[in-house]
Amino acid sequence: MVNTKDTLDLSPPVFDYEDFLDRIDGDVDLLKEVIEIFLEDTPRLLAVLYSGIKSGDTEAVERAAHTLKGATANISAKRLQQLSHHVQRMLKKNDVAHLESFIGDFEENFKKLDRELRGYLVK
């Protein structure tokens, strides 16, 4: 059995503030607005992802992982972007048996990201 986590790189930062700020041309007000929207929408998206993984609905998992990968790329949330991309690669390889083991990684990294992002909302 292949350990699918061996190919997953979680070394990027949870959130790359400088990269995100550069992407939005230094507009701190926009940064806060985008963070608020992301924090409001992402828990629902993660719930769809988890539900799809648990029920074996690979189409729902693919849609959620794709949407999450885009949303996290937009705000420079590097680790969740990597996780989402990895889940998509697993689906393409039809390696669905190990998907459930990633739920904890998503939860842990979203909690870290949530704390970090909320810190920028109060600045």
Please provide a written account of the structure.
The protein is elongated, with a radius of gyration of 15 Å. It has one domain (14-121): Up-down Bundle (Four Helix Bundle (Hemerythrin (Met), subunit A)). The model has no long low-confidence stretch (mean pLDDT 92). Helix 3 runs antiparallel to helix 4. It has five helices and no strands. 70% of the residues lie in helices and 0% in strands. 24% of the residues are buried. It has helices spanning 17-23, 28-55, 58-74, 78-92, 103-121. The termini are far apart. By secondary structure, it is mainly alpha-helical.
Throw out a few tags for this protein.
Four Helix Bundle (Hemerythrin (Met), subunit A), mainly alpha, 123 residues, elongated
